[in-house]
């Protein structure tokens, strides 16, 4: 299966692109949705969070109170790392399982919608990286409008993330969302068409003959490793 990693920055329009892809029948594995699932009541993830951070992070109904948890880990790097150590493995396992389910269903490709694809860095393990981009000034204006925030607050939020200009350096495909909705839809349509061409008929061979799929995946990971070294030297 051909796996694409989709990412972007805050207010660049990644969620819009993800929705457009889903409307076109592209299987989407959404990391944000999975992140909520792994901490639902009764899950090991939530039990581990309560074990390490106490029952005060729970709502009256037993679900995770994200605001309370946020206040507990705020400005505490050790607690934030502890939380990531609990959540990230669980999220990755569920993402892998979702990809496997799509493969079992005979899907040609799927898209991993991951905000921290580069920072993860999950980008090393996908066949292609697609970044939804817009200029940082446009990004800032959109964020201010969306959240009704001041320029100072919006700038602070952007500064806390990897700049979109840096994420683009890792991209195999850049979807430019600095223009109109119609223009964006056209780019998404072209992107899906290119995916179909990239997959071709070999997806069927990989599905019917799993060893071929394993060898193909190994080749992709090797190519990614070489690309990673090149990008590291460049950056």
TrEMBL record:
<comment type="similarity">
    <text>Belongs to the CoaE family.</text>
</comment>
<keyword id="KW-0547">Nucleotide-binding</keyword>
<dbReference type="GO" id="GO:0004140">
    <property type="term" value="F:dephospho-CoA kinase activity"/>
</dbReference>
<dbReference type="GO" id="GO:0015937">
    <property type="term" value="P:coenzyme A biosynthetic process"/>
</dbReference>
<keyword id="KW-0472">Membrane</keyword>
<feature type="transmembrane region" description="Helical">
    <location>
        <begin position="201"/>
        <end position="221"/>
    </location>
</feature>
<keyword id="KW-0812">Transmembrane</keyword>
<dbReference type="GO" id="GO:0005737">
    <property type="term" value="C:cytoplasm"/>
</dbReference>
<dbReference type="InterPro" id="IPR001977">
    <property type="entry name" value="Depp_CoAkinase"/>
</dbReference>
<protein>
    <submittedName>
        <fullName>CoaE-domain-containing protein</fullName>
    </submittedName>
</protein>
<dbReference type="GO" id="GO:0005524">
    <property type="term" value="F:ATP binding"/>
</dbReference>
<keyword id="KW-0067">ATP-binding</keyword>
<dbReference type="InterPro" id="IPR027417">
    <property type="entry name" value="P-loop_NTPase"/>
</dbReference>
<keyword id="KW-1133">Transmembrane helix</keyword>
<dbReference type="Pfam" id="PF01121">
    <property type="entry name" value="CoaE"/>
</dbReference>
């Amino acid at each position: 299966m051909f796996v694409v990693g989709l990412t972007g920055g805050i207010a660049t329009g990644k969620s819009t692109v993800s929705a457009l892809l889903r409307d076109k029948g592209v299987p989407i594995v959404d990391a944000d949705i999975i992140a909520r699932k792994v901490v639902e009541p009764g899950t090991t993830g939530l039990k581990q969070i309560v074990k390490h951070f106490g029952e005060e992070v729970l709502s009256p109904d037993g679900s995770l109170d994200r605001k309370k948890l946020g206040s507990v880990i705020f400005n505490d790097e050790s607690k934030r790392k502890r939380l990531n150590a609990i959540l990230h493995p669980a999220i990755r396992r569920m993402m892998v399982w979702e990809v496997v389910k799509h493969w079992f269903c005979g899907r040609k490709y799927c898209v991993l919608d991951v905000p921290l694809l580069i920072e993860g860095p999950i980008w090393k393990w996908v066949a292609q990286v697609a970044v939804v981009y817009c200029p940082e000034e446009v990004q800032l204006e959109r964020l201010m409008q969306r959240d009704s925030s001041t320029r100072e607050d919006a700038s602070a939020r952007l500064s806390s993330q990897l700049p979109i200009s840096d994420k683009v350096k890792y991209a195999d495909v850049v979807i430019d969302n600095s223009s109109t909705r119609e223009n964006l839809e056209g780019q998404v349509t072209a992107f899906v068409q290119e995916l179909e061409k990239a997959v071709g008929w070999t997806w069927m061979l990989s599905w019917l003959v799993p060893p071929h799929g394993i060898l193909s995946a190994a080749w992709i990971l090797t190519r990614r490793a070489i690309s990673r070294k090149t990008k590291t030297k460049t950056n």
